[in-house]
Amino acid sequence: MTMIDLLATRYAYVLFAVLLVLGLYMIVASPNLVKKVIGLNIFQTAIFLFFVTTAYVTDVDGESAQAPVIPKDAQMYDPYASPLPQVIVLTAIVVGIALTAVALALIVRIYSEYGTLDEDTLREVRSNE
Amino acid sequence: MSEPIPAVLIVLPIVAATVPLAAGLVRDRVGWAIATLVLTAEAALATVLAYRIYVDGERVVHVLGGSEFGRQEVEFGGVTSEFIVGIELVGDALSGLVVLLIAFVSLGVLAFTRQGGPRSNAFYSGYLLLAGGLMGVPLTGDLFNMFVFLEIVGLTTYALVASSDRPEAAVAALKYLVIGTTGASLYLIGVGYLFVRTGTLNMVDVSRSLAGEPGWIAGSMYGDPLVAAGFGFVVVGLATKAAIYPLHTWQPDAYAEAPDGVTVYISALVSTVGAYALARVTWFVFTPEFFVVNTLVIEAVLVLAGGSVLAGSVLAASQRRVKRMFAYSSVAQFGLIVLAIGVAVHPAASEQATRFAVYGTVIHLLGHAVIKGGLFATVGSIAEGTDARMVREYAGLARQRPFLSGAFAVLGFALVGVPPTIGFVGKWYIGLSAVESRLWPVVAVVVISTVLSLLYMARLLENLYFDTSTVTTDAPGSQSTDVAADGGGANGAEVDADMTPRKAAVGTRPPYGMIGLALVAAIAVVGLGFVGADLTTALDPVVEAVIESSPEVTP
């Protein structure tokens, strides 16, 4: 598979990898605590994208996939998209939001105590105490 | 067919977590009573579950969602397989011991927090939520469900660490949150890779699919790079949760800055369930057959774990704050546990070696939880009244706190691995498994770790008992070196405390609940050492399952 093919047909997976690394880099490299949390969110969103992409089954005999609402008397109803990864992502989003809320609450506390959001300044303030 | 106990064990504390908050509108400080009530019921339920697993020899399964879910037969290509619809909760010979540990430690730590820990109602809501999350990890039979429970554990731990009055706690909690969430997310990627290949999330079904059992899968998938990558992500994610070097950086800050009661609780259980999850996934989802194909992968895990043992021990020995020292010591001890997890599935391990490695993993996992929880309880109690938190401040404290010092010494020797404590039994089996499988570097690491842990424990104990430089009183100290003489030492302790000018200004005696927990932990580590043989009998079904590469532990 050439690079072009990869980008044309598997662009969602490429995007997953790019976002994942981008988020991880922000977590590690950004000195700003809020930006770290944003990086964490990008990192998690990349994983959500991966799960949703795996659920989306396209182009079986020229038909694109449908939501899995299957009538009772249906004989054949192919292809349809798997609902399981979407449920997983829904749960993971809830977990992610809860984490972001706790992180932001901690950041508010840190800011009110030390008056800074910068990791390096924070280290200096704490070592001076 | 569907047993209610595993579900109740998880749901009860989570639902009850709302009660202290609601009751807080009417009365202050009812949280402790509610938590005690709920966790007593929890301990009783856990005992019933353990009785059914170990005495009746059952595999207790609960299927969430009612009778239309559960195992169903699927036929494909002439082969009939049973596949699960929905989520299973499973209590088997591996999870039963961990469930017991969680239930009784959760109840025991309450004795400490009654007077020592945070007392607000909100704290006990968080405490109960954490207990529910911790219960979920060993009981779930589903990989994604495990992620959710790990995150419940994580979230509540971050909140509890930050519940201290000190602002440093918020910084430590945020650091823990960022690293812990990244770790859990990496685990989720690994689960995603496995899901893409196998189409299922149930641990038993994933394991069977990887082995190529169902008719629609052509042969085993052990050679598939995607599966190996999935294992890599899962290991790194769970190693972060278990605080394996170099992914441990959150742990010393979190343990040192959290309120004492919280440190006792999380040091005993939070990393423990992370290591349990790693053992469960390595042994029963991937199974030893996977590592026959991917030997390099398990060797990488052994190198990681060995590094953790050495680095953790060295870092512990160089600490000045007692809580940080024990935090780094946890890094080393979990390194040992992960070593044993790896040796159990290493292709070089004979059946006997696998047997010893499984014994070593589980016994050291349980033993370390009791030892480390007990040590932090002792450290917290000693700090109460004396305000001693640095190693050098421990000088001569044995005279003022004879009971606590005795407990501290027993727990310390258990951490080093002196017989007849549980710490010895665990380390002994881990060492034996390494010798039996002829993995000599592992043997060396186990031996060196024991010497290094002796190094930092001896420094503390020497300060505690033999360093009299800061004690200005000339009161007779003959009893202080003898644990057995403490029986008559209670009055002496009070007299000593009154006669020591430096401490008398700060000092009141720590409450009985705090001392009690430290003493119970010290007795437990010795007692558990004597029932080590019974523990190994209880673990035999687990050993059989690992040796046969079976995805489930059948009695």
Please describe what this structure looks like.
- The complex is a heterodimer of chains A (129) and B (555).
- Chain A is an all-alpha fold and 129 residues long.
- Chain A has a single domain, classed as Orthogonal Bundle (Helix Hairpins).
- Helix content of chain A is 70%, strand content 0%.
- In chain A, α2 (11-29) packs antiparallel against α3 (33-55) and α3 (33-55) runs antiparallel to α4 (84-114).
- The termini of chain A are far apart.
- Chain B has 555 residues and is mainly α.
- Chain B has one domain (5-476, 501-547).
- Helix content of chain B is 70%, strand content 4%.
- Chain B contains 21 helices and four strands.
- In chain B, strands 1-4 form a two-stranded antiparallel ribbon. A two-stranded antiparallel sheet of chain B has the order 2-3.
- In chain B, α7 (167-198) packs across α10, α11 packs parallel to α13 and α14 (351-386) runs antiparallel to α16 (422-436).
- Chain B starts with a helix and ends in an 8-residue tail after the last helix.
- The relative contact order of chain B is 0.10.
- Classes of the chains: A mainly alpha (129), B mainly alpha (555).
- The A-B interface holds A 20, 24, 27, 33, 36-37, 40, 43-44, 47, 50-51, 54, 84-85, 88, 91-92, 95, 98-99, 102-103, 106-107, 109-110, 113-114, 122, 126 and B 144, 147-148, 151, 154-155, 158-159, 162, 167-168, 170-171, 173-174, 177-178, 181-182, 185, 188-189, 192, 195-196, 201.
Q: Total number of helical segments of chain B?
A: 21
Number of domains of chain A: 1
Oligomer: heterodimer
Q: What is the ordering of alpha helices and beta strands of chain A? A: HHHHH
What's the pLDDT, averaged over the residues of chain A? 82
Structural class of chain B: mainly alpha
Indicate the proportion of strand residues of chain B. Answer: under 5%
Overall 3D form of chain B: globular
The level of helicity of chain B is: over 70%
Low-confidence stretches of chain A: none
Q: Major sheet of chain B: size, sense and barrel closure? A: 2 strands, antiparallel
